[in-house]
Design a protein that fits this description.
Strand content: 15-25%
Shape: globular
Oligomer: single chain
Radius of gyration: 30 Å
Helix content: 25-40%
Distance between the termini: 62 Å
Largest sheet: 8 strands, mixed
Number of helices: 18
């Protein structure tokens, strides 16, 4: 018999009744039923109920056993009586009667419980992550993570891609976040950068003729943590393809990502044909470039109904500034003054002056609009708004006004808030789409200059002619994002493989040809030796898994995450370097005053 086990704790079934088995695992729980001890034994694979009766030679030792001790038992498998079968347990038809027990490892008093799903301080959970990972939900999420990544690899291979590994120590690249720098001992005063993404390397692979590349790539960005983005490192399904249009990328990757969700969706519907929504349309309809399409609310412009109206606040704004628009956020079933006042208070708490509204009710047998705005603009305009938006009795509508470039994000937040508060969002499905035709450039207000809006290595629509003769802020790019349930889960583009076009694109953001040759010399040289048209994308592995697991935070699907201050409390990182290490690296610290 094996030293530790003949079976796992999730393996035994009715067919094993009568067998003598050896199990090893963690003591999940001990229950004393009038002298009869029940020990739930747990390992990675499941749980088995062990019974120790007073006649067993192991009884005295079993009485001393505590939760999370690691033990080995030799036992006989017996069938449970029909009334004691545990249908929620894979091994619930059987239990094992313990003949011998060995304590393999004792456990001190736990700093946090591992039974159930307690709401425990994050710093304690991260410091003792090895215990936190024993919790059923978190353990299950990590197992799901490994299965999802394996499925990604399988599906990408089936689609004709080959996996190639790109360097971790590389040069700085303008991916939109701070680099993690690694000092070079051999080259004093110089630094490597950890890759924010394998962008340049994967494009060079296309120039080298590898045609279809993918990688489950680690990426490193020195940025503040968010619920949907971990500090430090994250992983993406990175890919690149040669001789393709963006339509080819979409038609290739849509089945891969859809298939991943379907495989792990547990029966939830998944969008079959992903809508392709232009960026400008997404902003105007949803107030976001990553809309949650499970929310049926669509924003509409109703500026004409307020122009010259009795609601002077909006009317004067429209008259004074031609950029002013009034957007309406319809709220079916939201037609109560209590809900409207609650939304107005929410808007004020978000730093807004308020949120105008109209709600419709039947008075004296007639449907009419109610609220301050309805009184100011009159019944005719109120009815025109209701008819445009398709609203009826018991419905409401909220309004925001000004320059859409300044208020669209708030409008999108209000749409989300209304949909959530009124339970309009269908949470039991995965709604995916493509957002396309992103702006190539944007205005950097802080530095008062044009900057790249997305990936700087993308192909501008219109090519060199557009860069030479068009207002940069009107140029679109062959760039696209994949969105699921309000999260951006992938981003990509058709690349710019022309050296002249590449130089011109960077010149418009203030970089010279010499700057391009110095900062992106490898790619610039490569494009002069026969570069195929190519494009690709990168899908966020962590975000996809978070959505599949139904988690609210990436820390719930990550093995050893950092805390909100970008600290690894388990390993004590970041840590101080010794003077010897600093001398070898030719580094002297210049720390801020405490």
């Amino acid at each position: 018999m094996h030293r530790y086990r003949t079976h796992t704790c999730g393996e035994l079934r009715a067919g094993n009744v009568g067998e003598t088995v050896r199990l090893s695992g963690w003591v999940h729980r001990v229950r004393d039923h009038g002298g009869l001890l029940f020990v739930d034994l747990r390992d990675h694979y499941g749980m088995t109920q062990c019974v120790v009766d007073p006649d067993s030679a192991a009884f005295t030792l079993a009485e001393s056993v505590r939760s999370e001790w690691v033990v080995r038992v030799d036992a006989e498998v017996k069938a449970r009586s029909p009334e004691t079968v545990n249908a929620s347990l894979a091994t619930g038809e059987v239990e094992v009667y313990v003949r011998d027990l060995e304590v393999l490892s004792q456990a001190k008093e736990l700093p946090l419980p591992v039974f159930g799903e307690p709401d425990y301080p994050e710093d304690v959970r991260l410091k003792y992550r090895f215990l936190d990972l024993r919790r059923e939900t978190l353990h299950k999420n990590i197992v799901t993570r490994t299965k999802v990544i394996a499925a990604m690899r399988r599906r990408m291979t089936d689609a004709g891609f080959a996996e190639y590994s790109t360097p971790i120590l590389t040069a700085s690249s303008p991916e939109g976040a701070r680099d993690f720098l690694v000092p070079s001992r051999i080259h004093p005063g110089k630094f490597f950068a950890l890759p924010q993404a394998p962008q340049q390397y994967k494009q060079l692979l296309m120039v080298a003729g590898f045609d279809r590349y993918f990688q489950i790539a680690p990426c490193f960005r020195d940025e503040d943590p968010r619920a949907d983005r971990l500090p430090g490192e994250f992983y993406q399904l990175d890919l690149e393809m040669s001789f393709v249009t963006q339509e080819d990328v979409w038609s290739t990757m849509e089945p891969v990502i859809r298939g991943i969700f379907e495989e792990f969706a547990a029966g939830k519907p998944v969008t079959q044909d992903f809508p392709r929504i232009p960026y400008d349309t997404a902003i105007r309809k949803y107030g976001s470039d990553k809309p949650d399409l499970r929310n049926p609310i669509e924003i509409e412009a109703v500026t004409e109904h307020f122009a010259g109206s009795g609601f002077k606040v909006f009317a004067r704004m429209i008259e004074a500034d031609p950029k002013t628009e009034v957007w309406a956020i319809p709220a079916k079933t939201g037609g109560s003054r209590a809900f409207c006042d609650r939304m107005n208070s929410w808007a004020q708490s978000a730093g807004q002056p308020g949120l105008g509204y109209i709600f419709w009710r039947t008075e004296n047998g007639a449907l009419e609009g109610a609220g301050p705005l309805a009184k100011n603009i009159g019944p005719e305009r109120t009815e025109a708004i209701r008819a445009q938006l398709g609203l009826g009795e018991g419905d409401a509508c909220f309004f925001v006004a000004g320059d859409p470039a300044k208020f669209y994000k708030f409008a999108g937040e209000a749409r989300t808030r209304v949909g959530t508060e009124l339970n309009l969002v269908d949470t039991e499905r995965y709604a995916l789409c493509w957002i396309v035709d992103f702006p190539f450039y944007e205005w950097n207000e802080e530095e008062k200059r044009v900057d790249f809006a997305h990936n700087p290595f993308s192909m501008p629509q219109g090519g060199l002619d557009a860069l030479n003769g068009q207002d940069p802020l009107t140029i679109k790019a062959y760039q696209y994002d994949m969105v699921c349930n309000g999260y951006e889960i992938a981003s990509g583009s058709i690349r710019n493989q022309s050296p002249d076009l590449m130089v011109k694109a960077f010149e418009l953001v203030g970089l010279s040809k010499a700057d391009v040759e110095e900062r992106f010399g490898g790619m610039y040289r490569a494009f002069q030796y026969g570069a195929p048209p190519h494009g690709g994308m990168a899908a966020g592995v962590d975000r996809i898994i978070m959505l599949i697991c139904g988690a609210q935070n990436l820390r719930e699907i990550t093995l050893f995450p950092m805390n909100q201050r970008a600290e690894d409390l388990l390993m004590g990182a970041p840590s101080d370097a010794t003077n010897k290490q600093l001398r070898e690296l030719h580094i002297r610290l210049n720390l801020p005053n405490p």
